[in-house]
Amino acid sequence: MSHSDFEQYRPLLLTYAYNILGSYIDAEDVVQDVFLRFLGKDVSAIENRKSYWIRSVINGAINLKKKQLNSRMTYPGEWLPEPVDTLNTQQPLVKEETLSYALLVLLERLNPVQRAVFILKEAYGYAHKEIADLLQISVDASKQVLTRSKKILQLPAKQKNKVQKDWLESYLEMMKTGDIEALEHLLVTEAKVVSDGGGKVLAALRPSIGRRAAFNLMRGLLAKYWKGLSHKLAEVNHQPAILFYEGNRLASCQIIDIEDDGISNIYIVRNPDKLKTLKHLSHFQD
Question: Strand order in 208-209's β-sheet?
Answer without folding.
Answer: 208-209, 187-196, 262-269, 249-259, 239-246, 230-236
